[in-house]
Amino acid sequence: MLSILPGKKIAELDKSYAREVGISSWELMERAAESFVSWFLKGFSGVQEKVFIFSGPGNNGGDGLAIARLLSEKGFAVSVVLFSSKENSSVDWQVNFDKLPEGISRYQYPEIDFELASSAIIIDALFGVGINRALGGEYLEVVNTLNQLSGKKISIDIPSGLPSDSLVEGVAFLADMTVSFQFPKLSLLIPEHSKYVGDLHIADIGIPDSFLDQFGSNKSFVQASDIQKMHKRFDNFSHKGDFGRILLIGGRGGKVGAIILSTCSAMRTGSGLVHVWAEGASKDVIHISCCEAMVEGEKILDELDKFDALGIGPGLGEVPQDLLRNIFQSTGKPMVLDADALNVLSKHPELWDLIPKGSILTPHLKEFERLTGKSSHHFERLDKASEYAVQHKVYLVLKGAFTSISTPDGKQYFNSTGNKHMATAGSGDVLTGMITSFLGQGYDPLNASLCGVFHHGLAGEIASKTKARGMIATDIIESIPSSFLEMQID
Ligand SMILES: NC(=O)C1=CN([C@@H]2O[C@H](COP(=O)(O)OP(=O)(O)OC[C@H]3O[C@@H](n4cnc5c(N)ncnc54)[C@H](OP(=O)(O)O)[C@@H]3O)[C@@H](O)[C@H]2O)[C@H](O)CC1
Ligand SMILES: [K+]
């Protein structure tokens, strides 16, 4: 798992890693440049030959110069635009400046005709994690101009102008793609910055996770290789009881569709037995839509002990708080709480400390706001999520791009799968079914949350390859099996 370190720790990280493995800071920069270039060649080989690199005075600018050299060696027509004098630039910038091959065109700002750059790929190497104030003067001027150009724009490490751990002030580079080194900076994961970041790619520069761990970050970025290890393995003698018996509670009135989505997704996630509590006419509809499920009446609420996990909320509608209170008091097992169950909790904070420890709450941003009040930005929301999880000893899954999972011990995990097409009705109900299913299969609440969120996102990515903007929640469910196949989970 990749630790997410604050920007101000990165210089320290570089220094101590270079010392540990006996390489120079320039060699580490070279690795970063090579990693960027190998990513670049996969997407841009033969597409476009002209590249303009805007290089600032620090090591981000130094990365830009090293990349200029490597791309020029690969046959691209590279130009660099410089801002500071050599002596006012970082040491490794100077080394890379001296290594620039003859064939690279050099411009000293403001002596550049932007007309030349307008048909090129623009690489932003103005500032990285060392930015310490809002853009001003010629940097502001150039970023404003570049932001008007229509060609492909790529940022190295972080779009220039974005601080690594706080909200942007003023102007920042609008990248189509950002290639961040080793781990994503926190700032790249928040919704307010999404228009600057574009598509995010993480470029490995060879610093092992275990080395990053020494820096004691409580935030991590979760990738496929982490998730693979969290899965339980079953064998040929496993029977449906081993895959868990779960109960889903919701689907009242006109919202039966929500609990059907949760039910079908729990089945597709591998649950052995899925029971659904529903009322009135909803029962028949559930039977018809998901014939593998068992539909239960009110009496089942007296038999909660026989279930390995509960998922409560999708399509539940307004219910008296006593329903939740009774459920909380009659089982100590962790459960998944979503949608209308969260709305009951928002109105009744007196229930918060009755929630069984280790339960998983899955609010989207609006539901989270109802629970904890308005936040002025996502950094504040993340802090509140962490506080809530610690205080009430629950897992708080805050849904959205890079869904975060806050834990009772103060850690925060960020998911790496999913895309914009998943913002569709019922997508959250699918997630509830998936997490409840994993919980019922005996995964601990953290692994159930991480695996649920990861496979939900991966299934969404797979479905959107053929459905794109037309994707609906059912398509995500249909792609859950492919997400297991892709990860070689049998
Ligand atoms: N492990 C890794 O991830 C590696 C990352 N690398 C790259 O290095 C940068 C960080 O480099 P650093 O030199 O620390 O910082 P910057 O390049 O971002 O620039 C800092 C310089 O800019 C000046 N500054 C700061 N803000 C402004 C501003 N708004 N306007 C003008 N100038 C500004 C600052 O100096 P001051 O004295 O003026 O404050 C600095 O001189 C990282 O992002 C990666 O790209 C390494 O290449 C390899 C390992
Ligand atoms: K940059």
From TrEMBL:
<feature type="binding site">
    <location>
        <position position="160"/>
    </location>
    <ligand>
        <name>K(+)</name>
    </ligand>
</feature>
<feature type="binding site">
    <location>
        <position position="315"/>
    </location>
    <ligand>
        <name>(6S)-NADPHX</name>
    </ligand>
</feature>
<feature type="binding site">
    <location>
        <begin position="399"/>
        <end position="403"/>
    </location>
    <ligand>
        <name>AMP</name>
    </ligand>
</feature>
<feature type="binding site">
    <location>
        <position position="139"/>
    </location>
    <ligand>
        <name>(6S)-NADPHX</name>
    </ligand>
</feature>
<keyword id="KW-0479">Metal-binding</keyword>
<keyword id="KW-0630">Potassium</keyword>
<comment type="function">
    <text>Catalyzes the epimerization of the S- and R-forms of NAD(P)HX, a damaged form of NAD(P)H that is a result of enzymatic or heat-dependent hydration. This is a prerequisite for the S-specific NAD(P)H-hydrate dehydratase to allow the repair of both epimers of NAD(P)HX.</text>
</comment>
<keyword id="KW-0067">ATP-binding</keyword>
<keyword id="KW-0456">Lyase</keyword>
<feature type="binding site">
    <location>
        <position position="258"/>
    </location>
    <ligand>
        <name>(6S)-NADPHX</name>
    </ligand>
</feature>
<dbReference type="GO" id="GO:0052855">
    <property type="term" value="F:ADP-dependent NAD(P)H-hydrate dehydratase activity"/>
</dbReference>
<keyword id="KW-0413">Isomerase</keyword>
<dbReference type="GO" id="GO:0005524">
    <property type="term" value="F:ATP binding"/>
</dbReference>
<feature type="binding site">
    <location>
        <position position="428"/>
    </location>
    <ligand>
        <name>AMP</name>
    </ligand>
</feature>
<dbReference type="InterPro" id="IPR030677">
    <property type="entry name" value="Nnr"/>
</dbReference>
<feature type="binding site">
    <location>
        <position position="157"/>
    </location>
    <ligand>
        <name>(6S)-NADPHX</name>
    </ligand>
</feature>
<dbReference type="Pfam" id="PF01256">
    <property type="entry name" value="Carb_kinase"/>
</dbReference>
<dbReference type="InterPro" id="IPR036652">
    <property type="entry name" value="YjeF_N_dom_sf"/>
</dbReference>
<dbReference type="GO" id="GO:0052856">
    <property type="term" value="F:NAD(P)HX epimerase activity"/>
</dbReference>
<keyword id="KW-0547">Nucleotide-binding</keyword>
<dbReference type="GO" id="GO:0046872">
    <property type="term" value="F:metal ion binding"/>
</dbReference>
<dbReference type="InterPro" id="IPR029056">
    <property type="entry name" value="Ribokinase-like"/>
</dbReference>
<dbReference type="InterPro" id="IPR004443">
    <property type="entry name" value="YjeF_N_dom"/>
</dbReference>
<feature type="binding site">
    <location>
        <position position="124"/>
    </location>
    <ligand>
        <name>K(+)</name>
    </ligand>
</feature>
<comment type="subunit">
    <text>Homotetramer.</text>
</comment>
<feature type="binding site">
    <location>
        <position position="429"/>
    </location>
    <ligand>
        <name>(6S)-NADPHX</name>
    </ligand>
</feature>
<feature type="domain" description="YjeF N-terminal">
    <location>
        <begin position="10"/>
        <end position="213"/>
    </location>
</feature>
<feature type="domain" description="YjeF C-terminal">
    <location>
        <begin position="223"/>
        <end position="487"/>
    </location>
</feature>
<comment type="similarity">
    <text>In the N-terminal section; belongs to the NnrE/AIBP family.</text>
</comment>
<feature type="binding site">
    <location>
        <position position="60"/>
    </location>
    <ligand>
        <name>K(+)</name>
    </ligand>
</feature>
<dbReference type="GO" id="GO:0110051">
    <property type="term" value="P:metabolite repair"/>
</dbReference>
<dbReference type="Pfam" id="PF03853">
    <property type="entry name" value="YjeF_N"/>
</dbReference>
<feature type="binding site">
    <location>
        <position position="364"/>
    </location>
    <ligand>
        <name>(6S)-NADPHX</name>
    </ligand>
</feature>
<feature type="binding site">
    <location>
        <begin position="128"/>
        <end position="134"/>
    </location>
    <ligand>
        <name>(6S)-NADPHX</name>
    </ligand>
</feature>
<feature type="binding site">
    <location>
        <begin position="59"/>
        <end position="63"/>
    </location>
    <ligand>
        <name>(6S)-NADPHX</name>
    </ligand>
</feature>
<keyword id="KW-0521">NADP</keyword>
<dbReference type="InterPro" id="IPR017953">
    <property type="entry name" value="Carbohydrate_kinase_pred_CS"/>
</dbReference>
<keyword id="KW-0520">NAD</keyword>
<keyword id="KW-0511">Multifunctional enzyme</keyword>
<comment type="function">
    <text>Catalyzes the dehydration of the S-form of NAD(P)HX at the expense of ADP, which is converted to AMP. Together with NAD(P)HX epimerase, which catalyzes the epimerization of the S- and R-forms, the enzyme allows the repair of both epimers of NAD(P)HX, a damaged form of NAD(P)H that is a result of enzymatic or heat-dependent hydration.</text>
</comment>
<comment type="similarity">
    <text>Belongs to the NnrD/CARKD family.</text>
</comment>
<protein>
    <recommendedName>
        <fullName>Bifunctional NAD(P)H-hydrate repair enzyme</fullName>
        <ecNumber>4.2.1.136</ecNumber>
        <ecNumber>5.1.99.6</ecNumber>
    </recommendedName>
</protein>
